[in-house]
Known about the structure:
single chain, alpha/beta, Rossmann fold, five-stranded parallel β-sheet, two-stranded antiparallel ribbon, 7 strands, binds flavin mononucleotide
Amino acid sequence: MKILVVFYSRTGNTRKAAKIMAEVLNADVDEVIDKKNRRGILGFLRAGYDATRGKTTEIEFQRDPSDYDLVVIGSPTWNSRVTPAIRTYLMKNGEKIKKAAFFTTCAGRSRKCLSQMEEILGKKPLKAGILLQKSLERDAREFAEELKKGTA
Ligand SMILES: Cc1cc2nc3c(=O)[nH]c(=O)nc-3n(C[C@H](O)[C@H](O)[C@H](O)COP(=O)(O)O)c2cc1C
């Protein structure tokens, strides 16, 4: 099975989780770049606002998800919600994603992020999970190993 792990990351947590998952799943990795400046205090405030308002953004990514049997998609949680970058990715690529799995990284609480991802894609994921910042590496490994068993 050909697997792609796609992620957006502002401060590195989701990138770290995605890399661990790709290693366990023997998958390719693609980073979604948000062209909007999300740095600094203003970037932080705008990030929360944009996520809450369900805004899209301008993104860049490299790989074509239609080349893969399974696409694992990771977003940080912002104000309990999915990031504009991953919202936009899902909206652009819905038709091209055959099977999906979702994960989000957060500091402690992610109420709506995963359900929003499912709603935007319009497909039930094979697996969806919340990875906590404090146990990120363990959570990422466990998620990927369970997913691997499920797809074997
Ligand atoms: C604008 C903003 C809003 C956030 N909102 C939440 C939240 O609602 N719940 C939570 O547990 N963590 C929240 N966080 C923390 C991030 O989800 C967490 O640090 C995540 O792992 C960051 O991923 P990254 O390093 O890949 O960018 C928020 C962070 C930012 C920047």
